[in-house]
Known about the structure:
Order of helices and strands: HEEHEEEHEHHHEHEEEHEEEHEEHEHEH
Distance between the termini: 19 Å
Oligomer: single chain
Number of helices: 12
Helix content: 25-40%
Amino acid sequence: MSDLSVNAPRLWARLMDMARVGAIPNDGSRRLSLSDADEGGRALFVSWCAARGFSVMHDQIGNLFVRREGADPKAAPVVMGSHLDTQPNGGRFDGVLGVLAGLEVLETLADARIATRRPVEVAVWTNEEGARFQPAMMGSGVHCGVRTLDETLAVCDAGGISVREEITRHGYLSGLKPGHHALGCYVELHIEQGPVLEAGGKTIGVVTGGQAIRWYQVTITGEETHAGPVPMAMRRDPVPVLARVIDLAQAVGTTDEQARATIGMIVAQPGSINVVPGQIILTVDLRHPDEDRLTEMHTRFMAGVAALDQARVGVAAVNSWHSPVVRFDAGLVERVRDSAAARGYLAQDIVSGAGHDAFHLARMVPTTMIFVPCRDGISHNEREYAAPGDVAAGANVLLDVVLKSVNRP
Length: 409
C-alpha cells in the first residue's frame, strides 16, 4: 500500500486556493450553504475535476458526485467525500480536507494509470454544517432517507429564504432523485476537531464510530414591557428563567466526563436595550457516546424544562434533531489501522465527538472515517489549522483504504 503516495504540494495548494473563496479575516472562510460563496467553492472544485476528465453528477438536494470510471461501470463505487460549506466564521480544513483529498486520490490514481474494477467517486454533501439551514448533515440525510426531499426543501433560513429557492436558483432540481445514486462504501477524511490526537502525539485517528447528538430549541415566553415604569415584581420577564435553563443545561452536561452540553444561540425579542424581552429563544446541543446515557440526559433536560414552565413565564423545549450513536464498519476500520502501521504513522482509535455526513452513510453502506490532528483542537473558527504533513498523511491513508477496496466484490 505504501508504494504509492499522493501529491502533497498539489493538495495543499488546492486547500489554500479554496480558502480564498469566501475568505474572511484571520485566514478564515465563510461559505454558508447554498450561498453564492458556497456555489463559488463548488464551481472551483468542479473546474478542477473537469480539467482531469472526471464526470460530475448532482441530485435534487445539491449533492455532487465526481466519478473516475472503473472496469465494471455497473459495480457500486468506492466513495470518498465531505462538504465545502462552512460555519459563519469557519476555517480552511473542516469538510474541505475530505473533499479535496478525495480529488487528490482520484488524480493520484490517474497519474499512476491505475485501473480499478469498481468506480471511485468523491461526494460533496449539501449543508453539512447546519449553520444557515437546520438540521445539519442535510444533503446526506436526504440521500440516506433520514429526511424527505419535500420537507427539506421547505426549510427556511433566518431571513425567510427556503432551501427550495436556493436549490432552484442554482439549478439543482434538474438532478438525480436523492438516494438513486448507489454507493458501495464510504470513507471520509476529516480534521479531528478536538485536542486528543495532538495531545497524544498521534498522526492518524482510527475512527470507530460517533457519539449520539440531540438538538433542542427552547422558547421562554413572557411579556414585553418598558424597562422603566414597570416594577420588577410585576414583570413577566423571561431573563431570570433563561438563567435557570442555562444552569439546567450545564448540570445535564456534567453528569459524567463523556457528557457534553452546549448553548450555541440565544436570541431575545424584540432585542431593544430598554424593553423587557417578550420572548427568548435558545438552542441546546446534548451529546454522549452512549445512547442510553444520552437518553437519560434527554429525560432529565425535558423534565427540568417542564418544571420551569409556569403561568407567568412559559418554557417549552422541542427536540428538533437526533443523531444516534454510530459504529463504523469493522473491515474498513481495520484497513485504516493497517495503512497507518504500514506507513509508520502513529495512530490511535478514537470516537468522533462531532457529527459528520459519514454518520448518515453508515446507515446504508460500510463506512468509516480517518482523523488527522488540528492545532489546539480548534475548529469552526478562523484559527483552525492542520499541518501540511498531517494533511498528506491522512490523504495517503485515504488512498490506501481506497486501493484496498476497489477490487473487492
